[in-house]
Structures are given as structure tokens and as C-alpha cells.
Design brief:
alpha+beta, three-stranded antiparallel β-sheet, three-stranded mixed β-sheet, 50% helix
């Protein structure tokens, strides 16, 4: 979006930001989100509240300006993209009842570009491949050395994505584009956090302690020297949490192995 471009139907930044965070932080399907919104009660969750606020604002715009539906919808799309670092997924407009036809029209007018199925950017935006990948594969959590790369704890640049998914997740294309680890549901979300990619977008990844457990648990598929070096870096870091590491390793059934390798790293 051009810096001086006029936006008639402007929405408060905080409202937009809360909405974008609510959409990006959930891996629920849009159909499930809509069902949750229909079932809402007085104890409505924060994420759904952010979505409701956006829908109410847009609805009021359309009531007040019934002949400017096109301008309202395109202005909303541009503002969402600006807050989301120049990127947009079709998930971001579905709860707002904005037709995907507007995206096609904006694409035809060279306002936005389609970079993948359901993902668009402004022409001036540099594509964040990590963000795009996770938007396409919502169940994929960046893990192992790929997640540790975000924390600056590996010398290896992740030329291929490394992700963890539930055992029940069967999408063939994710295997073609990444190294995939399948885990049981009881540890799938253990240690999940939001981290920033090098381009400033938020993605879901495992925290440091979970990553240390993962690289030890899967060391047969890893570079053994890099694993040892990374564990040593973790031990030397100021924000390590050995209690959490022990808790995770017990939950994953590898406590003895993890404590052994961590103990060696202290020597």
C-alpha cells in the first residue's frame, strides 16, 4: 500500500492488530471459528472478541454507506495487510464475510500479488517463506534445528523446513517441502510458542527446551556434532530453564537420555 494512499474507511490500529493476532495465533479451521462465534456467551474468549469487534465495525460501515461496499471491503483488506507486514491469507477475510472475489479484482488491478494458494502480498513486500509455509500448513510447528535457528542457537541455515505435526495429520505436500516429524497428540503442543521470523512475522515454533528434547530424541536424524554444540550453547545461555527441560523430557519419556547429554555438556 502506498504511504500517502487515502483510506476512507479507516479502522483503529489496535483493533486491526488484535484481529490479525487472533487469526494468526489459532490453527482452528474457519468453519470452527464461525461455529464458536455463533455459540458465544458472555464469557467470550479474547480472540473471538477481537473478531467480533472487526465484524461489527464493518457491518456499521456498510449500514451507514450502503453504496460503498466495494470501497469498504478493499480498504479493510489493505489495512489488514499493512498491519500483517504486507501479507494476507484468505483466512483473514472469511470471518468478515468479504468475498474472495475482491482479492481477484485487486490482483487483476496489480494492487496485490498472489504468491501461493490463498496467500497474497503487496507488490513491494518481500515474501516471508516461513510465514507463508505455516499459513498453508496450519498444523505444522517449526521444530528441531529449524526452530533453534530462530533463537540463533545453530550454525546450520535451514535450507529445508523442519516441522512437527500430529500423527493424524496426512497432507502429502508437506512431506515434499519439509522434514516432518510425527508425534502423538499428548506432546504435539508441548512447548509451543510464537516467535518472529527474520522478516518480523509471527509463527508457531517450539521453545528452546522442547527443541533440545527433540534434537536429542531424534539425534539419529541429526548431525551429531551440531547436536552436541547446540546443547552446549543452551547450557551456556542465561535464559535456560533446566526445570522445564526436565519436565518436558519426562513427558516425552526421554528424561534419562536428556539429563545424560546435558550433564556431558557441563563438563
Amino acid at each position: 500500500m502506498k504511504k500517502n494512499e487515502k483510506i476512507k474507511f479507516r479502522i483503529d490500529y489496535e483493533v486491526l492488530n488484535n484481529y490479525v493476532e487472533a487469526i494468526n495465533s489459532t490453527n482452528k479451521s474457519m468453519s470452527q471459528i464461525k461455529k464458536d462465534m455463533e455459540k458465544q456467551t458472555k464469557s467470550i474468549k479474547k480472540g473471538l472478541k477481537s473478531i467480533n469487534i472487526m465484524t461489527d465495525i464493518i457491518t456499521n460501515f456498510k449500514i451507514e454507506y450502503p453504496n460503498e461496499k466495494i470501497k469498504i471491503n478493499t480498504d479493510i483488506i489493505k489495512q489488514i495487510m499493512k498491519v500483517n507486514n504486507g501479507m494476507l491469507t484468505t483466512r483473514m477475510i472469511e470471518p468478515l464475510n468479504i468475498s474472495r472475489l475482491y482479492l481477484s479484482t485487486m490482483q487483476n488491478n496489480n494492487i496485490i500479488e498472489k504468491i501461493s494458494r490463498g496467500i497474497y502480498i503487496f507488490p513491494s513486500t518481500f515474501e516471508d517463506s516461513y510465514f507463508s509455509f505455516q499459513q498453508k500448513y496450519r498444523k505444522a510447528i517449526f521444530s528441531h534445528m529449524n526452530a533453534l535457528y530462530f533463537y540463533g542457537m545453530t550454525e546450520e541455515f535451514p535450507y529445508n523446513y523442519t516441522v512437527t505435526v500430529p500423527q493424524s495429520y496426512h497432507v502429502d505436500t508437506v512431506n515434499e517441502k519439509s522434514n516432518v516429524f510425527y508425534v502423538s497428540n499428548d506432546i504435539y503442543e508441548l512447548g509451543v510458542v510464537e516467535v518472529e521470523t527474520p522478516n518480523g512475522n509471527k509463527v508457531r515454533a517450539y521453545d528452546k527446551e522442547r527443541c533440545i528434547c527433540d534434537i536429542i530424541r531424534s539425534k539419529g536424524r541429526m548431525d551429531s556434532e551440531q547436536v552436541k554444540k547446540t546443547i552446549k550453547w543452551y547450557i551456556q545461555s542465561h535464559d535456560k530453564n533446566i526445570a522445564k527441560l526436565s519436565q518436558y523430557s519426562k513427558k516425552m519419556g526421554i528424561n534419562e537420555k536428556v539429563m545424560e547429554m546435558v550433564g556431558e555438556a557441563y563438563n
